[in-house]
Amino acid sequence: MVSTAVKEVHILGLTRSGKTFRPSDWAERLAGVMSQFCPGVATRGGHWAYSPWCVPSTTADGVKCVIVNRELREVEPKAWDFCVNFAKDNDLQMIELDAQGKPIVG
Known about the structure:
Radius of gyration: 14 Å
Number of strands: 4
CATH superfamily: Uncharacterised protein PF12112 family, DUF3579
Strand order of the largest sheet: 2-3-1-4
Order of helices and strands: EHEEHHE
Protein name: DUF3579 domain-containing protein
CATH topology: Alpha-Beta Plaits
Distance between the termini: 11 Å
Pfam family, one: DUF3579
Number of helices: 3
Organism: Hylemonella gracilis ATCC 19624
Number of domains: 1
InterPro entries: DUF3579 (IPR021969)
CATH architecture: 2-Layer Sandwich
Strand content: 15-25%
């Protein structure tokens, strides 16, 4: 269960045992699935882009991650649940951050 104080969740490409998650493009795939959840109205023939609420990134240590913003939960709770459950189902590490960008412990 993700804390209600969470502003965003970083899903790391590392399992709880510290192994690198595969396939290597998992972050882009997950963010690609979430790309349909985007503020505003998509235009026909528009360019494909990641949702601002779910973007692939890397950590300072070079580990791939996906940053999922809480606004996704407000707009589409099932999409938020999909991301969080993806991490849980694949035994991935998650870091919950508050509005100031500080990790939430506990």
